[in-house]
Amino acid sequence: MKRSRRIVVAAGFTLILGAQLVFTIALAVPSGVRIHSPQPGFLLDRGFVVSGDAWARDGLASVRVEAVPDGRTDVGILSFPVARDAVKTQGKVLFLLSSWSVKISLPSDGAWRLRAVAVDAGGREAATPAREISVRAGAPVREFRSWTTEHLVPVVLIFAVAVGLGLYARAGRKTADAAAMASSGRRLPVLGVVLACAVWTNELCYQLYWFFVGGWSVANALMIQMCGLSILFLPVMWFTENQRTRQWLFDILYFWGIGGALQALIAPDIGANGFPAYRYFSFFISHGLIIIMALTMAIAGGMRISIRSFLRTLVFTNIVLLPMYGVDRLIALIPPYDMGNYFVLGYPPPTGSIVDVFADIFGPSPRYVIGLELMGLAVFLLLYAPWPLARLAGARRHAERRPEAR
I need a labelling partner for 313 at 20 to 30 A (CA). Which of 2, 131, 212, 403 fits? Predict the structure, then answer.
């Protein structure tokens, strides 16, 4: 790896992981309460969802959201009791999470101030700073809606850019023109630097944004999920000059990155942060760049997936699961005292997913991991399938050309 690329890699890892360490330390307080959304600056309908989190080392007694009209005295404080997210299996509540949400409805248009108040088991209160919002009956709904224009347009753009960049980087390789071949050979490294800077800059900006709006948590924002690890290591794959190392990284990151990003793009989990919220753009940029970097390396970088790639990734993934299961449980010792859910090993997501079906069939974690294993195997097989089919089609074309050559 050339010195300039080592500097890029070192800078990216230092900034992103350093920020995560600082955020973890900053939030290591015994009790707290935060509002994640709505964000100030957008006009809201009178009825909207407020979400956030709250925690206390001695346990929470209650959480409520208070709304006060700004500059008016004819309406008093409106109070809305909050329901904390619950982890359920087979119809039974196993435990409560720090995250909460509540649908509130305000009686009039105009400016309002919101705050969340948490009461611990000892009766002590903690409150957020007031958050100013504006409401108007009939204002556009900000919640993300799947399979609408705001969902389909970025997905189409991602795959168009991935194919276009791959073909651009590969252009000239099959020509006899030496200048064209040299130009093509220079495109891939330059493109790698651009994409690496893009994916890491987007991730760092998102981490800073999510921390300062009150949504960052050690339980769900560390870079130790499949997509997070792909964001960290895809640039390393591009920059390494050792072909065996590059192939090994490509094997893992192809299945992890594209598999995780595709599932995220099919069912985006961005809640009230629909277009044109910053989180909406950051979500599609990060998952899109994962797919773009992996596919571009396959199209232009000569990387291929074999049965050995498939088996290597399957074995490596299972080796990773055991220590990750322990990490998920250790995270519960750190505020906000939630069990981690990296690799979905801790509990089914409260927003609902196919993991609920596995939990109903096999039982709570770690038993429902059996279902995750089966689903992971199916996803890996689907991602592997195009490669032997492409090799078979190529062999047939080659066989058809032979008589002509003679």
Answer: 2
